[in-house]
Recover the amino acids of this structure.
């Protein structure tokens, strides 16, 4: 069982199995949302324990399509919890326990700011891999 929450604790959830993967996105949108390193959770393993009323959706204008969520009480980025996809991203910083996996890739490395140095051996992609 892997527990997770927002900064203020209003939103709490658990994963009944380890995420399928972890990766870091360096695009400006993920950076600005404060959610660059993500784990991908299986919908069947995700259980929202409390705080549905504090989950706010951010729906971007086209051409962007990813609906992001955050805690409207403290502002913590929550990724795409509430998504109906079979697997969806959750910022690893929301996890209170070890996700049992480590960073496997970096995407949009071409958008990475010059001040950020990638310090692991994870595979790098200049854009989003096909």
């Amino acid at each position: 069982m892997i527990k997770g929450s927002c900064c203020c604790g209003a939103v709490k959830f658990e994963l009944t199995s380890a995420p399928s993967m972890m990766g870091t996105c360096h695009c400006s949108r993920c950076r600005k949302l404060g959610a660059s390193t993500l784990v991908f959770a299986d919908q069947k393993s995700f259980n929202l324990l409390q705080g549905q009323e504090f989950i706010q959706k951010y729906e971007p204008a086209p051409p962007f399509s990813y609906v992001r969520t955050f805690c409207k009480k403290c502002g913590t980025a929550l990724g795409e919890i509430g998504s109906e996809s079979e697997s969806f991203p959750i910022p690893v910083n929301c996890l209170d326990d070890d996700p049992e996996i480590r960073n496997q890739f970096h995407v949009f490395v071409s958008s990475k700011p010059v001040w950020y140095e990638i310090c692991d051996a994870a595979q790098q992609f200049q854009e989003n891999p096909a």
Summary: Helices lie at 28-32.
